[in-house]
Amino acid sequence: MDPQALDQLREIVGDEYISTRKDVLLSYSSSASTGYDSQMPAAVVRPASTQEVSEIVKVANKFKIPVIPRSGGSSLQGEVIPSPESLVIDLLRLEEIKLYKDLRSVTVGAGVTFGALDKFLKVHDLWVPVSPESALVCTVAGNVAVNGAGPGSSRYGCVGELVLGLEVVLPDGRVINTGSEANPHAPGPFLRYAFGPDLTGLFIGSLGSLGIITKVSIKTFRRMHHFYYDTYGFPDMPSVERFLIELKQNEVHPLFASIYEGRILQFFMDMLGEEYGIPKHQWPPLTVSMTLGRMRDDLLQSDIRMVKKICEEIDGHVIGISELPRGEWEDRMRVFVRSSYVHGWHWRILYHHQTPANWHKSVDAIWEIMDKHGLLGHTAGFLSGHSSYNFYPHLYFFPDDPEEEQKVRAAHKELSRLLLKSGAVPFKLSQYWTDGLAEMKPYLELIRIIKDRLDPNGIMHPEVLPIPEE
Ligand SMILES: Cc1cc2nc3c(=O)[nH]c(=O)nc-3n(C[C@H](O)[C@H](O)[C@H](O)COP(=O)(O)OP(=O)(O)OC[C@H]3O[C@@H](n4cnc5c(N)ncnc54)[C@H](O)[C@@H]3O)c2cc1C
């Protein structure tokens, strides 16, 4: 990197918060993503304020240095892995939290994790009811940048749906506020759709390619204290799909609902069942694991009755095992996924959304790919909103076997094409989807136009979005 650029960056953040040392850069060369080649950046800076972020971006623009915004580094599709000549901007020092109790919102700096926010809000008997299963390390801003989802999404939708506004440093260093806070006299964040088009939405899911989110304003809710956990068995795919659709149609909105294929559930239980205290069971072909939550017990009891009725009307039965959903919900900030690291698994993940009615199409697609290539993998997912189901199929490989890893990479590309054909949409965009997106040319061109206009020097996380160059 140009020594002059380094000097100017040093002036902004101070000696302690800039580094080009190999041992430091090494820790920015990878992320939680397994199955991606790591790559060291040229330098890393750790700003402490929006002002510093803005000044850094101006320097990067002047010297045409690609910048990679990084917060928790917990993303799973290689989104935060730098290029060799890039500057990583580590945002974890932006730790401010400001509560607007009467506005039912909170504003957090880009370095605040879901775990830290939950600890803060718990004191006020409040919460943000959706969090990813990486909540202890993943930041709210990072999750907004990828448009994440997780436990709580079955009722409230993706995290983006809770966002009221953002503070963003644009690629030229200008700072904007979106939502009601675009008005400097606003008492705080209270409305997202305030001044014409939804500019907040432009940055949700943009993976840091259009600007750096320095603050997120997000809705808070009174914490729930009434929960019910149960599992429901179904004989086949049509009945389990109908179950989820009918729940929503009858205004029953579980906090978290996952469908498990019997054979996959057994696979998990063999590894984790004992640790989580889940009784041994002859699991049916399909199981729904569900957490219901309500502010009032009478509402909860009514939901429980309605779920049972709907389940039995469509050939299902109440299994009566509560430990599985209880483990998923109560341990949602650390959860099952942690266990996959403990067990040393290596995988590639292909997040996407289907409608509950198309659930079987994703399951069929991943089994088709696993069988065709002789790979080990699994399907998993959860109801993720008004009428969507979030899927995260994994394909595993042995890290010591480069040939098998290549096979998984190729199989994943093939899977992405199959999924798009089946009507699925990406949950988080990533390079996997590129080939299959060819049919969406005008849409991608619009993203390219916006990107080029906002970022004429192309410095802001240049390669993360799978959109073609003009
Ligand atoms: C065990 C485990 C479980 C997981 N479970 C879930 C889950 O349930 N739901 C889910 O959605 N994800 C999940 N993930 C994936 C991951 O946690 C999310 O993608 C997460 O939101 C990434 O946030 P981060 O702060 O770690 O961001 P990073 O990994 O640092 O960055 C992610 C992307 O966002 C960009 N970015 C980061 N911060 C900013 C910013 N302030 N402004 C602009 N761009 C930025 C980066 O450049 C990169 O493209 C899981 C990961 C692990 C390891």
Explain this structure to me?
The chain is of the alpha+beta class and 470 residues long. The chain folds into 4 domains: 3-90, Uridine Diphospho-n-acetylenolpyruvylglucosamine Reductase, domain 2 (2-Layer Sandwich), CATH 3.30.43; 97-222, Uridine Diphospho-n-acetylenolpyruvylglucosamine Reductase, domain 3, CATH 3.30.465.10; 226-329, 2-Layer Sandwich (Alpha-Beta Plaits), CATH 3.30.70; 345-429, Alpha-Beta Plaits, CATH 3.30.70.260. The protein contains 15 helices and 22 strands. It has helices at residues 3-13, 22-26, 50-62, 114-122, 140-145, 153-156, 199-203, 237-249, 262-273, 297-313, 323-330, 335-342, 359-373, 402-421, 441-454; strands at 18-19, 43-45, 67-70, 87-90, 97-100, 105-109, 126-127, 163-169, 175-177, 212-219, 221-222, 226-234, 256-261, 286-294, 317-318, 347-349, 352-354, 377-378, 381-383, 389-391, 394-396, 425-426. The strands form 6 sheets. It has a 5-stranded antiparallel sheet. A 4-stranded mixed sheet has the order 1-2-4-3. Strands 13-14-12-15 form a 4-stranded antiparallel sheet. Helix 1 packs antiparallel against helix 3 and helix 13 packs antiparallel against helix 14. It is globular. It starts with a helix and ends in a 16-residue tail after the last helix.
